[in-house]
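Please predict the structure of the following assembly.
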Amino acid sequence: MLLGILGMNSLDCTPATNSLIRSEADSQRTLYPYVTGTSVVGIKYKDGILLAADMGGSYGSTLRYKSVERLKPVGKHSLIGASGEISDFQEIMRYLDDLILSDNMWDDGNSLGPKEVHNYLTRVMYNRRNKFNPLWNSLVLGGVKNGQKYLGTVNMIGVHYEDNHVATGFGNHLALPLLRDEWHENLTFEEGVILLEKCMRVLLYRDRSAVNKLQVLFSLCGIHTSRLLGNCCTV
Amino acid sequence: MSSIGTGYDLSVTTFSPDGRVFQIEYAAKAVDNSGTVVGIKCKDGIVLGVEKLITSKMMLPGSNRRIHAVHRHSGMAVAGLAADGRQIVARAKSEATNYESVYGEPIPVKELAERVASYVHLCTLYWWLRPFGSGVILGGYDRDGPQLYMVEPSGVSYRYFGAAIGKGRQAAKTEIEKLKLSEMTCRQGVIEVAKIRIYGVHDEAKDKAFELEMSWVCDESNRQHQKVPDDILEEAKAAAKAALEEMDAD
């Protein structure tokens, strides 16, 4: 609570930077993930962004947790979806909460949009990778700010790009070909959901670690993010 | 009540023979000479208001914020030396985020006030530090309801339902005591604070040009600290001016 007398000059400490420096002193680093989420699929549609992911957390080959929310809203404009180590995703959410909080406290009418959050996450992921202590996630970041739609992805190595449709994990192999064929600029909300459902169904067929409970989030132009949950039945 | 503490006022680590620490009292004088800051606790929240004296016509309105958000649920209005106040706010923000990362819940306002008061007091204990030349009014809304605290340069902090510091504090306090705060909502509170501010300053007539900065934490703002929305602020200013004219007309 009260800092020592000698630390007087650095009283305005910022907890966010502390946690990035801390890993230097750690002798441990992430070797392999334990509880993982599988693919996330995201598309741009006419009015905004749609993200879909299932709600499973696998512990190795066991489908252990079946109600894990892997899609979350970030601030006023963005959505994030994560595959990979769930605990690292929770840590990322902590960083983002701090980021959004400090941004809100300015109370000046500005707020961080999806492009800014994506860039921040890229820096975090890349720097962790360079210390050989990665956050074992592949992230999808999407949102709408001032009418501009944005959809991007970044993974544990720090590779990042933005596109009209992105996917992580098995989604890259199974969902993206479908999206490349059937995606077009003016998808309506309903068409977008049907397209995503198609991708998730294929993933459920072919991905061993998929579960049959979905989470879908959408972000609209000019409106705060909202979410809907759906159940996809097995055939 | 000002006595010259010749010889006993050179350092904050010296007591005078009658048991006073003069440096702290001088620090309090720095606060007394600044623009008035008022805080009131209404039925459903807190309203903070600051009279920002405009020193130059070139200043952009809306700059030089004197009210800062400390966390989602609380805000701090600063009086006295602006730079000192900024340091107190930075420390409060740091304490609030630290508490939340350790305990998982937003810092209770009482705890925040205690930590800020300890920090301010800390700087009155060493000869190589000077006391803060600013006092703050801290208002927040946690699960015990809305709470208002004031922290003085000496490090004292008390809980209030109405507080004022700065030039017009005597007039402001008299006005606040007249109000029935326990029955007032924050919307009405905003108008009352504007009235108090405009009365208090108008009486002084020394620095006519000022800008009114107000913020609230209340049920209406979803228990988040934010600047009072512009339309409500304009409404309050207009109502205050009208009431002022009415008073002058008598």
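The interface with chain B takes residues 1-2, 5, 8, 11-15, 94, 98, 101, 104-107 of chain A (CB under 8 Å). The mean pLDDT of chain A is 85.
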